[in-house]
Amino acid sequence: MSTAMAPDLTSKQQQILEYLRSNAATKTYFKSRLIGKELGMTAKEVGSNITALQEGDYDVDIEKWGYSSSTTWKVDV
Predict the structure, then answer these.
(1) For residue 31, which phi and psi values (nearest 5 degrees)?
(2) 3-class DSSP state of 68
(3) pLDDT at 16
(4) Element (H, E) at 65
(5) How much is the pLDDT for 5?
(6) What does the alpha-carbon distance between residue 53 and residue 24 come to, in Å, rounded to a whole number?
(7) Residue ranges in the chain modelled with pLDDT below 70
(8) Has domain 11-76 been given CATH number 3.40.50.2300?
(9) Distance between CA 34 and CA 56 in Å, rounded?
(10) How confident is the model over 15-28, as pLDDT tens digits?
(11) Domain spans of the chain?
(12) Which of 8, 15, 66, 73 has the greatest count of CB atoms below 10 A from its CB?
């Protein structure tokens, strides 16, 4: 598992990964819309970039959890 910034990730993917790492200790569920608001991205940008994090070998487990006004992701670190 990679705990440092992975060189194969785009800058947006790295931003999302760091955001999830720093917030997953206190939260489990994240909405794409709210992640995007914090990082200056659209919900669509978050959703399309988070799939690369799901498929990669990183120190976070990301599961698409639900959809209600924005996709919700369950995150475990």
Answers:
(1) -95, 140
(2) coil
(3) 97
(4) strand 61-67
(5) 53
(6) 14
(7) 1-7
(8) no
(9) 22
(10) 999 999 999 989 99
(11) 11-76
(12) 73
Q: Kindly compute the dihedral angle of the four CA atoms of residues 34, 64, 51, 49, in this order, to the nearest 10 degrees.
A: -10
Q: What is the amino acid identity at position 74?
A: K
Which pTM was predicted? Answer: 0.84
Report pLDDT for 2.
Answer: 43
Q: Which amino acid is at 11?
A: S
Q: What's the chain's length in residues?
A: 77
pLDDT reported for residue 68:
74
For residues 17 and 11, give the distance between their C-alpha atoms in angstroms, rounded to a whole number: 10
Residue pair 17/52 in contact (Cβ under 8 Å)? The answer is no
